[in-house]
């Protein structure tokens, strides 16, 4: 097993002529970057057109009677005692194809208030990365895995202090989610959004007490596509049926892929203004690179992108000031655990934990005995068929429909950095309601925030990388609490 998160020869990706995920299987977390780069290539056959709902029929529901209790997780191996309910299991997406998505659900840690707290669905990106492996086990879930790959520690900043949190591994081929039809491992934005919609409809049948509950959808990175696209399908079907089939109240996306043109330029500008590349290189990129959708990337531009990618050296691009993982071996006794200092080798601990047969049994995962192991980012997804250039029109749709939109950004992420997000907001050309200001947690500036018209809020999280709740779990909990309450972040 090898998870190379640290040593990435970025510029070689530029030589990609088509997007073939498995070629780069070992560079797991770079899935988002591969897709971004593949989309720059005019010969790639990725459909980049505007996202529209894939399926205009309301999907048929499958009966879920009695399945909820079967999904209850009594105790995860190595888990400390807790007082909330956990569930895990499969929801069938398509019976004919034999396609099923794995979910892990952690009810709120508020015995008295849980029934008042909203439902929050969390999605990680990639494409191909697991919401269980990242979101649940390294970011906002109630537990973190120790360096022995066996012991679980409590995360006192878990998001289930603010909501009932549902983690979904999606699309088919990611984590424990699978299909018995191999063609389903050709992924894409439209398929993913349609399947995620079928998932949530059927999950609500299994957990009917959540049917009228306020729903929020959150995610990071390439989930900057998944979240708005699923939300669009929800809005679309609600409108078509002229009733609230799913009670969607808001979306929360962080370090999110939103708009390719500004994401690309924003990334190279972030490199330049954080002194990761030479000013001259940055100047050349500005001179020779036009990332606008209709333009092709010139050879001259490629040359300077490669120069930049190489100049950065071997750093943790997901948090440019964080250490690398040098030794992913498990320890027989878990190292001292600190929730505020995530171990850079955590991927390895989680990999080991989720591949234990007893863990899978306790979680009701891998019931069909898949012939490959659980991976943090998929090795079995074969390609990505469509990926819209921008999701800005979807964001504008939500703003026009009274759906709360919060866009956040860990400000030391170099992969989908804050600079690109700010450029995307500029492109949206929306007016400010409350000017840029600092927000606070524990007396320190937690980041900055600005409110725009129609309930759009931008929030930065200071000193957080790509996975905000991994690096600044305290500030991440402030973010989600204020988001679901719809209250401003503290100004002191
Ligand atoms: C389910 O999968 C089958 C086989 O792949 C396909 O023909 C059918 O259209 C799918 N059904 C739905 C509702 O998507
Ligand atoms: C996939 O195939 C296995 C083995 O035949 C079966 O047990 C399982 O139920 C199938 N999955 C779905 C979602 O139909
Ligand atoms: C939608 O439903 C409302 C109330 O149930 C009704 O007043 C309205 O006419 C309906 N609109 C359409 C387009 O069917
Ligand atoms: C970009 O390349 C494609 C395919 O090679 C070509 O059809 C298109 O005209 C080019 N666009 C520009 C603006 O040069
Ligand atoms: C485990 O330790 C060995 C010996 O020090 C080293 O060669 C290997 O790369 C380590 N494995 C990982 C996954 O870091
Ligand atoms: C599923 O279980 C089989 C048999 O125990 C194992 O070989 C495989 O690695 C597991 N796959 C996943 C995705 O967990
Ligand atoms: C931005 O919005 C303003 C006011 O709505 C409008 O006058 C202006 O033309 C817009 N600019 C662009 C570039 O779309
Ligand atoms: C809940 C909330 O903040 N609603 C606001 C959404 O945006 C519109 C238009 O800017 C406001 O009028 C609402 O008060």
UniProtKB/TrEMBL annotation:
The keyword Protease applies. The keyword Transport does not apply. InterPro entries: AB_hydrolase_fold, Peptidase_S10, Ser_caboxypep_ser_AS. It is found in: Secreted. One of its GO terms (molecular function) is serine-type carboxypeptidase activity. SUPFAM superfamilies: alpha/beta-Hydrolases. It is an enzyme of class 3 (hydrolase). GO terms for biological process: proteolysis. GO terms for cellular component: extracellular region. It comes from the Eukaryota. Its EC number is 3.4.16.-. Residues 1-25 form the signal peptide. PROSITE patterns: CARBOXYPEPT_SER_SER. Keywords: Carboxypeptidase, Disulfide bond, Glycoprotein, Hydrolase, Protease, Secreted, Signal. Belongs to the peptidase S10 family. This is Carboxypeptidase.
């Amino acid at each position: 097993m090898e998870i190379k998160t640290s040593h990435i020869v970025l510029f070689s990706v530029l030589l990609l002529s088509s997007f073939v995920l498995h070629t780069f299987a070992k560079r797991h977390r770079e899935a988002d970057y591969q897709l971004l780069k593949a989309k720059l290539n005019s010969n790639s056959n990725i459909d980049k057109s505007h996202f529209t709902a894939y399926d205009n029929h309301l999907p048929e529901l499958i009966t879920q009677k009695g399945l909820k209790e079967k999904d209850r997780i009594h105790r995860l191996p190595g888990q400390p005692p807790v007082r909330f309910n956990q569930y895990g299991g499969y929801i069938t997406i398509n019976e004919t194809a034999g396609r099923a998505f794995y979910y892990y659900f952690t009810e709120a840690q508020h015995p008295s208030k849980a029934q008042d707290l909203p439902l929050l669905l969390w999605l990680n990106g990639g494409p191909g990365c697991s919401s269980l492996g990242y979101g649940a086990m390294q970011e906002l879930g109630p537990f973190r895995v120790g360096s022995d790959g066996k012991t679980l520690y409590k995360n006192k900043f878990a998001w289930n202090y603010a909501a009932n949190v549902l983690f979904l591994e999606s699309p088919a081929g990611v984590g424990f989610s699978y299909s018995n039809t191999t063609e389903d491992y050709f992924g894409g934005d439209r398929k993913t959004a349609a399947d995620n919609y079928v998932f949530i409809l059927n999950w609500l049948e299994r957990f009917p007490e959540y049917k009228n509950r306020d729903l929020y959808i959150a995610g990071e990175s390439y989930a900057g596509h998944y979240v708005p696209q699923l939300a669009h399908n929800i809005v679309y079907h609600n409108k078509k049926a002229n009733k609230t089939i799913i009670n969607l109240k808001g979306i929360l996306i962080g370090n999110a892929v939103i708009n390719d043109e500004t994401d690309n330029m924003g990334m190279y500008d972030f490199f330049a203004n954080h002194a990761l590349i030479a000013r001259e290189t940055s100047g050349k990129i500005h001179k020779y690179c036009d990332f606008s959708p209709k333009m092709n990337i010139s050879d001259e531009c490629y040359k300077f992108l490669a120069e930049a990618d190489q100049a950065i050296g071997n750093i943790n691009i997901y948090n440019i000031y964080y250490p690398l993982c040098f030794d992913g071996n498990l320890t027989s006794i878990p190292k001292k655990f600190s929730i505020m200092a995530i171990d850079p080798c955590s991927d390895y601990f989680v990999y080991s934990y989720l591949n234990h047969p007893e863990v899978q049994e306790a979680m009701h995962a891998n019931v069909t005995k898949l012939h490959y192991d659980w991976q943090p980012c998929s090795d079995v997804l074969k390609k990505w068929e469509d990926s819209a250039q921008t999701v800005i029109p979807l964001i504008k749709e939500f703003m026009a429909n009274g759906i709360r939109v919060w866009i956040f950004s860990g400000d030391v992420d170099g992969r989908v950095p804050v600079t690109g997000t700010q450029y995307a907001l500029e492109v949206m050309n929306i007016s400010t309601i409350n000017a840029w200001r600092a927000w606070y947690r524990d007396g320190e500036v937690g980041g900055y925030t600005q409110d725009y018209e129609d309930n759009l809020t931008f929030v930065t999280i200071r000193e957080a990388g790509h996975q905000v709740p991994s690096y600044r779990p305290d500030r991440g909990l402030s973010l989600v609490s204020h988001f679901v309450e719809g209250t401003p972040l503290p100004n002191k």
